[in-house]
Specification:
Amidase signature (AS) enzymes; 15 strands; globular
């Protein structure tokens, strides 16, 4: 990050228009959205000063974390406008003057949108994403674009899968709980020693580079980084938040969602992302009714767990299966953490249904039905896996490119693959592009019937004989999954999940040199429910959060 950024931010703090009003500087580190709003309301700070403090933190720590792909060059200008409106008594919404970051697959017109792909480096799209407009309408300052796994991790599958939070534009992001590189010979390619999660990034939010950020998920890409960076987050029902102006994998499962340090912050951000009305550019936004005034905070009650029926899906998600493949399960430390979480739920008055196993998991049909990925999922090798991702990527990526009009750097997925092949020396193919290859081999007409059959099977196993069956048979309000472990099953029918930080467990992997001691890894718990149940899930998660308050900020970034 240029030194001039830090200098400009310092000068802003020293000479900003409201400096004379501020007696004791307000500190943004770990500050929640309500705390930020309270400080703004009481004139303890200004939005300009918030931007300056966050930019100073980015300038100080970015070289160790690599959390940011772009910084908004007009952040101060936007802050000044919002400060002026506040002085005039005009507040746009619950995020008025609050700096928020976006994943770099979400369109902005004041910063590039690249998806982390070199083919789009420096490219500014001709229109903003609907969710970006909704955030601005709520008063947010879009301060930066976060790092991410390139094209939401649908570039390279086997035999050399792309590691989480790597992209060819910015390289690797690093976990703020351990910023060291992985020294093991088999993985000594610059990647972090402590898993960061992906494909969204929670790094900057954990390190207080901004108040919160927006990620996107197709199957785990909000829940995974939130789990690894001790964040609270909402993976919404597909359709709750508009996907228009977001680089896709497949519309069947894609969604954007909030990533924050507290459940309250995530709830506030979700309401802003959803917007006041359905988006005509995304028909799925009519799927769920909106809460009154787009406000999820009334659901946040400390006694929300009392009487709630919470299911524990032991098979596969807690305990390894007994088939020859030994699938799933937790290690002893993780299992103890989940037992501790269950004890909290009981103490807070929840009714625990244990086990509340998922039928399609118990009979092994779901664990044996994987997403076709990498070279092993190519045509002719894909009889026993779902082609929904690789089919949807070709269909929806090409549709997205068409919305860019004449400014599009590429016109098709084929052209992207050709660009990558022609620019190997620029590291476009550090891990290959096997997922792009198997997507581009799809014939959207000839393979349509197979796609529809696989999509139906996904829904049957994940919903009808999956989450629906477990919840309906046991009359559950939610299912409790370890970390982001339930992401894949909930993603197929597009069901919502709220994750909450809970603790630390040994999770650094094995095979490290004797002189390299892995640190404890963050671990959360997540509440999953049926479509459009975000309000209920947020209430359960908030009650759990308030009863535990286990989030610990990264000590490396005071």
């Amino acid at each position: 990050m240029p030194l001039i950024l830090a200098i400009a931010a310092v000068l802003t703090l020293l000479a900003g228009p409201a400096a004379a009003e501020t007696k004791k500087p307000f500190n943004v580190v770990e500050a929640t959205i309500p705390q930020l709003q309270d400080a703004l309301k009481r004139r303890k700070t200004t939005s300009r000063e918030l931007v300056a403090q966050y930019l100073i933190r980015i300038a100080m720590y970015e070289d160790r974390l690599n959390a940011t792909l772009y910084v908004n060059p007009k952040a101060f200008e936007e802050a000044d406008i919002l400060d002026r409106e506040r002085r005039q008594g005009k507040l746009r919404g619950p995020l008025h003057g609050i700096p928020i970051a976006l994943k770099d697959n979400i369109h902005t017109t004041n910063m590039p949108t690249t998806g982390g792909a070199l083919a789009f480096e420096g490219y500014t799209p001709p229109y903003e994403a609907t969710l970006t407009k909704n955030l601005r309408a709520a008063g947010a300052i879009i301060i930066a674009k976060t790092g991410m796994t390139e094209l939401a991790n649908w570039v390279a599958g086997g035999p050399t899968p792309m590691p989480a939070n790597y992209n060819s534009v910015g390289g690797f992001g690093f976990n703020p709980y351990d910023t060291r590189r992985d020294p093991r010979p088999s993985t000594f390619d610059g990647r972090p020693a402590l898993f960061t999660g992906g494909s969204s990034s929670g790094i900057g939010t954990a390190a207080s580079f901004w108040a919160a950020n927006v990620g996107t998920e197709t199957s785990g890409s909000i829940l995974s980084p939130s789990n690894q960076n001790m964040l609270a987050a909402v993976k919404p029902t597909v359709g709750r938040v508009s996907r228009y102006g977001v680089i896709p994998i497949t519309a069947d499962q894609d969604t954007a969602g909030p990533m924050a340090r507290t459940v309250t912050d995530a709830a506030i951000l979700l309401g802003a992302l959803e917007g006041a009305k359905p988006d005509p550019e995304d028909a799925a936004t009519t799927r769920c009714a909106r809460p009154a005034k787009n406000d999820y905070t009334p659901f946040l009650k400390k006694d929300a767990l009392k009487g709630a029926r919470i299911g524990i899906p032991r098979a596969f998600y807690y305990n390894a299966t007994n088939d020859s493949g030994r699938r799933g399960g937790l290690n002893p430390d993780q299992k103890q953490a989940m037992e501790d979480a269950i004890a909290v739920l009981k103490r807070e008055g929840a009714i625990i249904v244990d086990p509340a196993d998922i039928p399609s998991v118990v009979d092994q049909t779901l664990p044996q039905w994987n997403t076709c990925s990498g070279e092993g999922g190519a045509r002719g090798k894909d009889d026993n896996c779902s082609i929904v991702f690789k089919y949807g990527m070709k269909r929806d990526f090409n549709k997205w490119l068409a919305t860019l009009g004449p400014s599009a750097p590429l016109k098709s997925l084929t052209e992207l693959r050709e660009f990558n092949n022609a620019n190997k020396k620029a590291n476009t193919l550090k891990y290959g592009q096997s997922n792009l290859d198997i997507s581009d081999e799809m014939d959207l007409e000839r393979d349509k019937a197979r796609y529809e059959a696989d999509r139906a099977k996904d829904i049957l196993l994940a919903a009808t004989r999956g989450i629906d069956a477990a919840m309906n048979e046991n009359k559950l309000d939610a299912i409790l999954f370890p970390g982001g472990g339930g992401a894949a099953i909930a993603a197929k029918p597009g069901y919502p999940t709220v994750i909450v930080p809970f603790g630390m467990t040994p999770g650094g992997g094995t095979g490290f040199p004797d002189n390299f001691k892995p640190v404890m890894a963050p671990m959360g718990v997540s509440f999953t429910g049926l479509a459009c149940s975000e309000g209920n899930l947020l209430g359960l998660a908030y009650a759990f959060e308030q009863a535990t308050k286990k989030r610990v900020p990264p000590s490396l970034f005071p």
